[in-house]
Amino acid sequence: MLKQLYGKWMTAWEYALTTQDTNRVVRPLEWGFDWLSDFSEQAGRAAEREGAATHAENLAAMNAVNQEIVERSEEFYGYKRPEDFRIEERHPQLFPTNVRPETLAHEARMQAEIEEGKAHKAKFLRFTSPVRTRYPENDLVNARWYPARGHKRQAIIVMPQWNADALSHNVLCEMSNGFGVSALRLSKPYHDIRRPAEIVRSDYAVSANIGRTISSCRQAVVDIRACVDWLETQGYEQIGILGTSLGSCYAFIAAAHDARLRVCAFNHASMRVGDVVWEGQSTRHVRAAFEREGLRQEDVRAAMLGISPASYMEMFAARRTRTLVVHALYDLTFPQQYTQEILGEFRRLKVDCTERVLPCGHYTTGEFPYKYLDGWYLGSFVHKAFKQMRAELPAK
């Protein structure tokens, strides 16, 4: 009885948190073949006839492009190493994605501290993304740099959730510093300082424009790998990644394609992007656009196959990484059935995986007291994993 009451209470709280933002926009369905034409000739051909084709024809073409992405994933997620790495010092800003009064007040306080000379500058890694879009601000990668004292040649890349502001997950970077592990908090495509002026939320990362959504994942994965390049130039030899929600999807695909990522912490994970888009509370406005044009869940699942962890399970398992999956029992955004699929595959493929369960939901993970439990799971895993690897470092 108590468990049922707790479940109802938690679900109601989770639902309330997922519906408090009023600036979600139902955008029209766009196939977006032009976002993928630089990689795929068949995407280029589909882009030329997209307007005249039926939804069934466009869906078939998009499915074919996704199959091509999976078959040529090393090329799709491959890149030319950036040559303009640099450290920039500036005052941190919030870059909020909602218009709630408390959020806007927080942003105003931060700006006032800058104007009054009370704010401290921070260091940010900047470089041009190897994947180019039509938005110059999005193509300038941004990663806040948290170097640990006493260089131990270990570092972790942190990828926050979809629509995260610029302060989200910074505490995890500071926690890693406490373990002697340096941290790069990477801004995802279309997020915070990379967000185009025409949008308030970071909707271009996941939207009813399917090609742009796939391109965003490609850019995020490539940006992660480029960050690994920079860390290596700074003397870091053991590198890991921590991703939350959408960030965990990007982190997984990056690790599947890059053996240099040896520690992986996935904070909320799911098998297929299309299933999360269709079933998740956070993406109900995206689903609405698809439903309006007659698409079904299986259509969306297939149209996003190239950016789904399910497509790269064997590749990831072959990397032999130390892996953590944290999931929540009352998650309305990453439903449990899809997380259990990924855990089942990890068991089948004998991935070295630690599982931790939160007695809350997706959004309530960020609320008291669950955020501290989540932080403990993530922090203790990162500490243990890097400590175990430290003995492997050659003496210098």
What does this structure look like?
- This protein has 396 residues and is an alpha/beta fold.
- The protein has a domain of 263 residues: Alpha/Beta hydrolase fold, catalytic domain (Rossmann fold).
- The protein contains 14 helices and 9 strands.
- Strands 1-2-3-5-4-6-7-8-9 form a 9-stranded mixed sheet, with helices on both faces.
- Helix 6 links the parallel strand 4 and strand 5.
- Helix 7 packs across helix 8 and helix 9 packs antiparallel against helix 11.
- The longest helix has 24 residues.
- The radius of gyration is 20 Å and the shape is globular.
- The mean pLDDT is 96.
In summary, what is this structure?
The chain is built from 14 helices and nine strands. It is of the alpha/beta class and 396 residues long.
End-to-end distance, in Å? 60 Å
| Secondary-structure element series | HHHHEHEEEHEHEHEHHHHEHEH
Please give the CATH architecture of the domain at 128-390.
Answer: 3-Layer(aba) Sandwich
Fraction of residues in H or I helices: 40-55%
Poorly predicted residue ranges: none
- CATH H level of the domain at 128-390: which superfamily? Alpha/Beta hydrolase fold, catalytic domain
Question: Within the CATH hierarchy, at the fold level, what is the topology of the domain at 128-390?
Answer: Rossmann fold
Global shape: globular
Report the sheet-strand fraction: 5-15%
The largest beta-sheet arranges its strands as 1-2-3-5-4-6-7-8-9
Computed Rg: 20 Å
Mean pLDDT: 96
* Annotation, overall tally of beta strands: 9
Counting helices, strands and paired strands, the structural category is alpha/beta
The top-level CATH class of the domain at 128-390 is Alpha Beta
What's the tally of helices?
14
